[in-house]
Specification:
single chain; 392 residues; 5-stranded mixed sheet; 15 helices; 15% strand; binds pyridoxal-5'-phosphate
Length: 392
């Protein structure tokens, strides 16, 4: 089919079959666990390829498939699977690729549960992981062995936003038949395309920008048709960490406004960063688009526009708790990428068991901010009153 591929066509038209749904503009929710057939022959056809044909909702469901098609197109991928969480998407990819005796190289300080998957769960299955900073591709190269089967990246990472050179690492992986995966949650499919750099698999926590409304937990995995089919037949169907049709519908609704939300967030974040960089109680901002960013060349090469997740380091680390407690408009909460602005005191919250490990090597006094869709002036005023109230 000769189809246009611009962004609004993908979001408004791709996969929508309105003539089959009595003209309804919004797609129906196929809230069904199973599908029936007129005869055994038709049943046999569906059962032979559960990725393509609705048979049972743990496999294919039309509402979920509509979301998959749009996300694949946004990532420039042949196919895509969606999961009940971003963590499930990453775990499914790893479980599909590695086997007992293999090694994985992973960027240091990945998302907490990516780290736990690789440092706690996979070792029980005989898979060892080396965590490396990976600002320089040679750090990865130095850890590659005969039995390395996977490289797991997160660029930028979601606490201090270090980036990895995706093209160089993809090349290194290809040459040795190692499968590469990049967690692309920070950038969203709109601002960075790891597959175009040669990376094999892209994962997202769709909970963040893709859904954007803080009401669904969802994961995304994109790649070639063959790789996605392998994941589908393996961990996707056996672990069953699927997204429900109703949640898929909510994510479709969130996705419609992704470009508008990303544009607004980029604009507001730039203003907020300008304010924070100039404030005497802020020692440092962490944001790939800040003027002092040490990896500015990579930012220019890999990221098309700014996202709204950033960290600030307070000059006096003792002030983190007071600063956070004084914020009125920023909500104190984990997660990010929604319509609402959030603050997360990194080391303070890391004193809880579930955050251990993620905090290794992080500077003291770090507060992560997720910029939502409020007016920049409202957010800056809130940050100003909370910072100004701190003693020196
Ligand atoms: C939140 C997050 C995840 C995990 O996604 P869930 O949807 O919460 O399971 C993975 N990677 C990054 C960078 C995240 O921020």
């Amino acid at each position: 089919m000769d189809e246009p591929r611009d962004l609004s066509w993908i979001l408004n038209h791709l996969g929508e079959d309105r003539s089959q749904q009595r003209g309804a503009v919004a797609p129906p929710i196929y809230q069904t666990s199973n599908f029936c057939f007129p005869n055994v022959a038709a049943m046999r056809v569906a059962l032979a390829d559960e990725l393509q044909h609705p048979f049972y909702t743990r496999g294919n469901n039309p509402t979920v498939e509509l979301l998959r098609r749009k996300l694949a197109a946004l990532e420039g991928a042949e196919d895509c699977l969606v999961f009940g969480s971003g963590s499930a998407a990453i775990a499914a990819a790893v479980i599909q690729v590695v086997k007992t005796g293999d090694e994985v190289v992973c960027v240091s300080k990945p998302y907490t549960w990516t780290r736990k998957l690789l440092s706690l769960l996979m070792p029980r299955l005989g898979v060892t992981t080396h965590f490396v900073h990976a600002r320089d591709v040679r750090e990865i190269k130095a850890k590659l062995r005969e039995n390395t089967s996977m490289i797991v990246l997160e660029s930028p990472n979601s606490l201090t936003f270090e980036q990895q050179d995706l093209s160089a690492i993809a090349q290194l992986a290809r040459d040795r038949q190692i499968v590469s995966l990049c967690d692309n949650s920070f950038a969203s499919p709109l601002h960075q395309s790891p597959l175009a750099h040669g990376i094999d698999l892209v994962a997202h926590s769709g909970t963040k920008y893709i859904n954007g409304h803080s009401d669904v937990v969802v994961g995304v995995l994109c790649g070639s048709a063959a790789r996605i089919r392998d994941v589908f037949r393996g961990p996707y169907m056996t672990l069953g960490a699927i997204l429900s049709p109703h949640d898929a519908w909510l994510v479709l609704r969130g996705l419609r406004t992704l470009p508008v939300r990303m544009r607004q967030t980029a604009e507001t974040s730039t203003q907020v960063i300008d304010f924070l960089r100039a404030h005497p109680r802020v020692a440092r901002v962490f944001w790939p688009h800040a003027p002092e960013e040490p990896q500015a060349a990579l930012t220019a090469r890999q990221l098309r526009a700014p996202s709204g997740l950033m960290s600030i380091q307070l000059r006096n680390p003792q002030h983190v708790e007071t600063f956070c407690d004084r914020l009125q408009r920023f909500l104190l909460a984990c997660s990010w990428g929604g319509y609402e602005s959030l603050a997360m005191p990194i080391l303070e919250s890391s004193k809880s068991a579930s955050f251990q490990g993620a905090a290794d090597g992080l500077p003291a006094g770090l507060v992560r901010l997720s910029i939502g869709l409020e007016d920049a002036s409202v957010l800056i005023e809130d940050l100003r009153q909370a910072l100004d109230a701190l003693s020196d």
